[in-house]
């Protein structure tokens, strides 16, 4: 029996047996960026601040996780949604406490119009990173896609509280489909 253990362990790559470390704690830097984006006087000044947030969200816990994340994002950008989903599944399985794995997988589900799956992943991302503006915005869009308009309005309002310059803010503007007084619009995402 002792002879089988080394053979069994040798059959698996070290990365597959390794445990994902804790994700880097960028909460202080992200709090500063959220304050800066809220104080930005224009969309042009807010955009680079929001883009900086992405550098923190996309900072994976280790090199292995970063490689998976980067490959999945590249596949998504190349419209290889099944390949991207496979990578993000690997990332979530390897690093189940890393919010961006769920957020990126949700984005692929959203692009495939699988709003229910996107919503499940977004809820998980938000539970791990409550101020993840992109996940909150994605949650609003997924709820909108499911025609759950009151919930979509509330989710978008929460995201806009954190970043009032989100491109999705037009949905909540007067006359927009998620405006507080909007009637039930036709949904075509």
Give a description of the structure.
It contains 11 helices and no strands. It has 189 residues and is mainly α. 67% of the residues lie in helices and 0% in strands. The radius of gyration is 19 Å and the shape is globular. The longest helix is centred in the first third of the chain and has 15 residues.
In short:
The protein is mainly alpha-helical and 189 residues long. The protein has helices at residues 4-10, 14-17, 27-39, 43-57, 63-77, 81-94, 99-111, 115-128, 133-145, 149-162, 169-172. The chain starts with a helix and ends in a 17-residue tail after the last helix.
Order of helices and strands: HHHHHHHHHHH
Shape category:
globular
Query: Percent range for helical residues?
Result: 55-70%
Structural class: mainly alpha
List descriptors.
mainly alpha; disordered N terminus; 0% strand; globular; 189 residues; single chain
């Amino acid at each position: 029996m002792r002879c089988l253990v080394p053979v069994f362990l040798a059959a698996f790559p070290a990365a597959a047996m390794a445990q994902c470390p804790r994700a880097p704690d960028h909460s202080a830097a992200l709090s500063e960026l959220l304050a800066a984006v809220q104080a930005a006087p224009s969309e042009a000044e807010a955009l680079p601040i929001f883009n900086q947030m992405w550098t923190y969200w996309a900072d994976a816990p280790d090199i292995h996780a970063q490689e998976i994340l980067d490959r999945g994002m590249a596949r998504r950008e190349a419209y290889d949604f099944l390949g991207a989903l496979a990578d993000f599944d690997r990332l979530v399985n390897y690093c189940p406490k890393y919010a961006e794995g769920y957020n990126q997988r949700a984005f692929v589900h959203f692009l495939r119009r699988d709003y229910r799956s996107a919503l499940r992943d977004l809820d998980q991302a938000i539970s791990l990173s409550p101020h993840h503006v992109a996940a909150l915005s994605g949650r609003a869009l997924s709820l909108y896609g499911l025609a759950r308009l009151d919930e979509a309005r509330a989710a978008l309002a929460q995201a806009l509280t954190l970043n009032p310059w989100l491109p999705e803010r037009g949905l909540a503007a007067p006359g927009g489909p998620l405006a507080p007084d909007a009637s039930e619009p036709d949904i075509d995402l």
